[in-house]
Amino acid sequence: MDLDTICKPIEKELEIFNKRYKESLSSDISLIGKIMEYLLVQDSKKIRPILVLLSSKMCGEPCENTYISAVLVEMLHTATLIHDDVVDEADRRRGVPSINAIWQNKTSVLIGDWLFSRCLSNMIFMRDFDMLSLLSRTAELLSEGEIRQIEGSSGWLVDEESYYEMIFAKTASLFAASCRLGAMGVCASRDKVEALYDYGKNLGMAFQIKDDLLDFTGSEDEIGKPRFSDLKGNIMTLPLIYTLRRIEDEERALLRKKIELADNEESFVEIIKVVEKSGGIEYSERKINEFSTKAIEALRIFPDSEVKGSMIGFVHFNMERKK
């Protein structure tokens, strides 16, 4: 199932969101306006606002708080991406030059800060303390996740459990919050709110593992950013964590040295071969399937519907995507 098919039940709501999101990014400052225009024409999947809208429609009819939530989660996500590209020194995002590649780091950091500030100013329109509390805690988790990743890249001490904690914070927390906000906005019952939170959390975990796996298996044209970027940044992801746990001490020391010295396509391909041989790719795919199954199981309390079909389709979309 592709994204267009997934979004069929919320076509009208997506149109309203897109209009509201564009309005929320307007500014009298010409440089901000120019950069926002550049962001708006990029090929963003808008996964998080889609999850807000689908979750809302699963439990009722989207309302004002639904659209405010959808705008806010996309703002938060975009701000973190801009900051991430500065930290990672990335020059491409979604197959096009990143903000920092065009406008340099100083402007990029300030634009990310401006988006966070605009997000805060828009929160006051929500007028729901529980939803505001969820959003503020999620923003905190997003930052904590990135800091955990930086902390882990300074050595080889990241284990599988720490990896899961990190990807929950940096990715799955916003997926989970998006689904919970969608349900909360239409005053869904507690069991439905929690079920959708569990769905979003597990989908988010599977999504980040898939992203990390694509760094090993995807092509640069497909994923829209340089291949091996995690390896180059010494970022510990699941395929590598599993490999380092499975191989013998001597081989482990040799692999670490290879990663530290790798500086060309051929050297990175050699590392990928070790990861494949150890079962790191297969293990990561197995974990994606496990989290995906949990996401679908979380939806069992809901009756079959077109919206539920789209949410299940979202899980399969992630499992099969190439970028």
Characterise this structure:
The protein has 323 residues and is mostly helical. The protein has one domain: Farnesyl Diphosphate Synthase, CATH 1.10.600.10. Helices cover 77% and strands 1% of the residues. It has 16 helices and 2 strands. It has helices at residues 3-6, 11-24, 30-40, 47-59, 64-88, 99-123, 129-153, 160-185, 190-217, 220-223, 229-232, 238-246, 249-261, 265-278, 280-298, 306-320; strands at residues 92-93, 96-97. A two-stranded antiparallel sheet has the order 1-2. Helix 9 packs parallel to helix 16 (306-320). The longest helix is centred in the middle third of the chain and has 28 residues, at 190-217. The radius of gyration is 20 Å and the shape is globular. The two termini are 15 Å apart.
Keywords for this structure?
globular, Farnesyl Diphosphate Synthase, mainly alpha, single chain, 323 residues, two-stranded antiparallel ribbon, 1% strand
Short account of what is shown:
Helix content is 77%, strand content 1%. It has 323 residues and is mainly α. It has one domain (3-320): Farnesyl Diphosphate Synthase (Orthogonal Bundle), CATH 1.10.600.10.
